Fold this sequence. Notes:
345 residues; five-stranded antiparallel beta sheet; binds calcium ion; disordered N terminus; alpha+beta; two-stranded antiparallel ribbon
Amino acid sequence: MPRTRLFRIGGLAGALAAAIAAVPVQAQDEAGFQRYLPTLAQQAAAAGVSQRTIDAVIPALTYNARVVELDRQQPESSPNAPVPAFAPYRARHVDADRIQRGRAAYLRARGRLSAIERETGVPESIMVAIWGHETNYGRVMGGFDLPRALASLAYEGRRRALFTDEFIATLKMIDRGVPREKLVGSWAGAFGGPQFLPSVYLRLARDGDGDGVADIWNSDADTLASIGNYFVNAGWRAGVPWGFAVSVPASLDRRSIASRTTSPRCARVHGRQSQWKTMAEWRALGVVPQARAWPGDEVLATLLEPDGPGVTAYLLTGNYRVILDYNCSNFYALSVGLLADAVER
Length: 345
Ligand SMILES: [Ca+2]
């Protein structure tokens, strides 16, 4: 966001500077935002949004300083920052309350969930665990007006391309019949039970209750069907676990199993995992499952020791990568998997 830097200078320039300084920053932002809106309107038209929607939405928008402030509070991820311990995160996210309410949601939606599982191969418990993590089963979905928030973030410019695309996607949702007043969500544009971004909604939201509308704000069935569809689209394989807890012998040479590749996406998250090996290979290295039988010998997995050697470690399959695709954080994906296991138990 452009902010005028003022210096103490004399004469006419000084008077002008004083006049600019007298205008509050908020008003300068609003004026700049209003000057930026025609650019967004042009981009929306070029992307195929109807003129009717553009005229109905864009002229009425005002700048939202709050979302820009929230965006600036996001910590920059430093490659050298120490990784915190997983155990406290797990205790906060896979707690008795979330497990108990996950079980209740699971039982309530059982008929619907098993139909989605039959169709998609995505376990019912995984869909419920994502729902629980994203919005505490629909309790916390955000109250920001999405077109206003996204247009403000696009104007601010730090991640302009991303927010412009997502802003345009909200207009396409309106073109597709979503009522304007439904477009409410979190400050960065995610909304509804699954916390989809608008572009993800356009691609992957599904109608789960058969009324013809993918209402992921109000319909639990639509939320769960949409999460299932996301997972199928991201490559979930039926019948393979996400991963499981294992014990690793202290003698295992960690350097010999370290990953030798760098992921093009989320490199730091993937870099904490080992090389891929088959279950047969892990077994030969002395790794032992803590509470379940081995899946098939040929299933591939990486090893993650989130709190270092000597503490519970996890073997993670390709399905774990699908959870990372939803939200690229090892702690998030581990606790989704563990919550799913707890809900199912
Ligand atoms: Ca529906």
